[in-house]
Every structure is written in structure tokens, then in C-alpha cells.
């Protein structure tokens, strides 16, 4: 029996709920492993070999290799865990967020200073009826 999830109807938004948490468990555990310097060094030395030690889906591994954080989120990644990948690459959270929106770091910073993205279009589709 599937749960009614009206909150899943926000265009352009992936909701991290219990189902996504289960889907991304190993991806997120991989990210957390990057908190240790020795694991970061192993990952940087041979990313594919290190990823193959984790029981993640091939799609999840490829998203990490491509640094496609939006895809990682679609596949159950949590942005707070995924930030460990960015830190391993020497990127700030602001740089990562900018790349996820298709904006430069400077454009992203300017948008956030001005109050963030507009709310138009960021509502349940059902609310528009």
C-alpha cells in the first residue's frame, strides 16, 4: 500500500523523506566516510575503486563520478551528506549550490543576498487549480 504524499507535487523539488532515505542510505554513508582523511585520500586516488566498495546502484556511483549532485539527490542523496563530496573537492557549499542551479557562484550569492529564489512556481501543482 502506497502512502498518499501530496508534498511530492512541488515542481522541480525532490523531497527527502523516509523512502528517499532508504534509497540513498549507502550513498549517504559513502559521503559520511569522506569525513576521515584516509578515506578522502583513497577516494581521490581511485574514485571508482573506492565507490565499488559501497553497495550503491550504478546510477548513484555514476552520479558521484560526474559530480551531478542534482542526480545524487534524485537517487536518495541528502544535500548535507553530499556536501562532503564538495569539501573533498575543495568546494564550498555556496559553490556546490551554485552549480546545482546552473548559476555561477557569484550569481548564486547575489540571488541569496537579495532574498533567495522567487516563490512563483514553487507550490504544490494541486494548489494552482
The proportion of strand residues reads: under 5%
Structural class: mainly alpha
| CATH topology tier name of the largest domain | Protocatechuate 4,5-dioxygenase, Chain A
Largest sheet: none
Superfamily (CATH H level) name of the largest domain: Dioxygenase LigAB, LigA subunit
Low-pLDDT stretches are none
CATH architecture name of the largest domain: Orthogonal Bundle
| Domains, number | 2
Which descriptors apply to this entry?
single chain, 129 residues, mainly alpha, 0% strand
What does this structure look like?
The chain is mainly α and 129 residues long. It folds into 2 domains: 16-89, Dioxygenase LigAB, LigA subunit (Protocatechuate 4,5-dioxygenase, Chain A); 92-129. It is built from 9 helices and no strands. The protein has helices spanning 18-23, 25-33, 37-45, 47-51, 58-66, 69-74, 79-88, 93-101, 105-113. Helix 8 (93-101) packs across helix 9. The protein is flat and about 45 Å long.
Give the gist of this structure.
Helices cover 56% and strands 0% of the residues.
Write the layout of secondary structure elements.
Elements: H1 18-23, H2 25-33, H3 37-45, H4 47-51, H5 58-66, H6 69-74, H7 79-88, H8 93-101, H9 105-113
Helix pairs in contact: 2-7, 8-9
